[in-house]
Write a structure and sequence with these properties.
Blueprint (H helix, E strand, L loop, with lengths): L1 H18 L3 E8 L4 E7 L3 E11 L12 H17 L5 E12 L4 E12 L7
């Protein structure tokens, strides 16, 4: 159930980024360090996005669950990706929060936090 909910949230986030002019370069990119939910590019940025899908009745925000350990895993995975796929685009680490109503399965809100943390693992 939780995996299916997360997959749905990632689908919504991918469509959301596409609507903002991004091309989805990869989804669920894995390295020995961890996983990045979505990697998207436009003419300026390569975005490494962590998607957090939460019920509207959940405690806290999705971004609160992207703590320092998770950030470090994402950063290390992003560096591995960038070593494999060279680019001149500016890297950016975003968090996309998807809120839904579990009773109706309706999307309630999308919150896109650009530059949610930096490449040094510091929350901005």
């Amino acid at each position: 159930m939780q995996k299916r909910t997360g997959d749905r949230g990632e689908d919504i986030a991918a469509r959301f980024l596409s609507g903002k002019g991004f091309e989805i370069a990869a989804r669920n990119y894995h390295s020995r360090f961890g996983e990045i939910d979505i990697i998207a590019v436009n003419d300026k940025y390569i975005v490494f996005a962590e998607v957090k899908t939460r019920n509207i009745n959940s405690f806290g925000t999705g971004a609160e669950y992207v703590g320092p350990d998770k950030q470090i895993r994402i950063i290390k995975t992003a560096f591995q990706y960038l070593n494999k796929y060279k680019t001149d685009l500016q890297p950016r680490f975003d968090v996309i929060e998807i809120e839904y109503d579990c009773v109706t399965s309706a999307l309630v809100n999308i919150r896109h936090i650009e530059n949610a943390f930096d490449g040094a693992g510091d929350i901005i």
